[in-house]
Amino acid sequence: MALRRIALRDFVIVRSLEIDLSAGFTVLTGETGAGKSILIDALQLALGNRADAGAVREGAERLDVSAEFDADPALAGWLDDGGFEAGGDALLLRRTVDLQGRSRGWINGSPATATQLRELGDRLLDIHGQHAWQSLTRPDAVRGLLDAYAGIASGTLDTSWGAWRQAIAALDTARSAQDSLQRERERLQWQLAEVAKLGPGEDEWAELSASHSRISNAQALIDAAQGASNALEDDDNGALAALSRAVALLQNCEHIEPEFKALGEVLASSVAQASDAAHSLHGYLREADTDPEKLAELDERMGLWMSLARRYRRPPSELPALLSGWQAELAALDAQSDLEALERAEQAAQQAYMKEAKALAKARKQAAPRLSQSVTQAMQELGMKGGRFEVSLQPLAQPGRAGLEEIGFLVAGHAGSTPRSIGKVASGGELSRIALAIAVTTSELGAAQTLIFDEVDAGVGGAVAETVGRLMKQLGRDRQVLAVTHLPQVAASADHHLRVEKRQTPSKGTQAARTESGVATLDREGRAQEIARMLGGERVTGTSLAHAREMLGHPSPATTP
User: Fold this and answer.
1) Contacts for 121 with CB less than 8 Å, ≥ 6 apart
2) Distance CA 374, CA 302 (A)
3) CATH architecture under which domain 1-126+498-515 falls
């Protein structure tokens, strides 16, 4: 997941720039004011930092920055959830900002928000700036470092905390609402009793309506059935007699006209069907009755349905569903009113939280001395002899979402001094070195494979600077490390060297020159020249050049066999 390439167009004083990066340890150097940190600023913009129209190069309409990383299969799920294409073996983040400050972002060519760019950026690289120590004063950052060092995850604790708080809220709500809950229960119970007395069946209303319609129209139905029966069976004019005569006439002549045979069969079938219909009508008439008593019963039953329906402003057909809904509401109220059950639930949630919190507290207590010792050792190498780093664990008065203790970082800058909160250490140089010591100690814990150090070596020099370079080179064996530095000792330790250059270019349409920034990849001799400049100032002497070659492990031309 290393950073492959950074491309800039019209960013601050950069017209157009594209840099290919390699694995290992890479340094960026350059004269003061050349814009060494511009690359870091552009990279942070591509990764979702706040957009500013002031970063658009003078004379341009918009800036465009992009960063290409090696693709990581571990990010496939995150990309898929966000609706982004996997992008093969590369992962491309891009951002543009115009003169009105309007910003647009993309991930693998698909539109992305600044928040999405930041989320992805947090997984891709870690940036340690000159004030990296400031994040070490934030409780969440401090806790995250210790937990990562201890190899513990706090997700389960957070879930347990949420469940406990929810159980407490449910219990408190139930306690404060007992009177209103009881009134609501009584209301529901009364309504349920009233509707339950009716006992409305699921399909009863439809059946009642159909039966009532039949009985209330019984005489009309009987008259219709009798009339139909007469029309079929009247001796002289009935349909059955007429059909039978027609069949006989056709059958008598079918030996002369073969077509009559088929027609006769059709009419014979009609005779059979009409006979069946007549038979059914006789059966219906035998059973048919106006039944005034049954009609009265149906009227009374339907009246009860309609009365309740009017009272509760519902169609009669919805009374069964209304009854079921009230029963469910009453069951929910009973659960809310069951204080004993809610208390048991709250106690169980508390116990689950405390079990997890105590396990984390134990792991933190075991890891704190080891982290303290590791950072203290790194401080000695960084010129803070006798300095001490401590991880403080102080019990909280009340359990919290993050656990049972408050975690802080304490530092003593030199022997004999009392460790104090890291935010109260006065020396800027000490702060930078402490931040570097912590970064070196904990860098292997993060998921990001690219580490960027932006002048964190400010305020150090001599042997300490050599140690800083050695530590960064050591980090570069397992992760990609990019450092902006002004120290020749750090630059000499790098695997790759980039020099930021500031140059004057003619401004179109004017006599004035415009300052622009570019980046050069240095070869063996170029590195020696740049380090010699860093050692001796703008004028490179034979002595500074020889010293630079010695630092790089290159023999001087005068001593080459």
Assistant:
1) 44, 46, 47, 48, 93
2) 86
3) 3-Layer(aba) Sandwich (3.40)
Q: Which residues contact 516 (CB under 8 A, 6 or more apart)?
A: 13, 14, 15, 502, 503, 504, 505
In the chain, residues under CATH classification 3.40.50.300 are: 1-126+498-515
Place of tokens 């809904």: 325
What secondary structure, in 3-state letters, does 265-281 show? Answer: HHHHHHHHHHHHHHHHH
What is the reported pTM? 0.59
**Are the C-beta atoms of 250 and 309 separated by less than 8 Å?**
no
| Residue 232: closest CA among 287, 286, 272, 288 | 272
Q: Give the range among 9-13, 82-86, 327-331 with minimum mean pLDDT.
A: 327-331
Mean pLDDT of 181-207: 72
Write down the pLDDT at residue 132: 57
What's the one-letter identity of residue 57? Answer: R
Copy the structure tokens of residue 422: 């890291």
Could you tell me whether strands 496-506 and 25-30 are parallel, antiparallel, or unpaired per DSSP bridges? parallel
Complete DSSP assignment for 77-95: HHHHHHT----TTEEEEEE
Q: How far apart are CA 291 and CA 211, in angstroms?
A: 12
Which CA distances in Å does 421 have to 54, 368, 411, 426?
37, 15, 6, 11
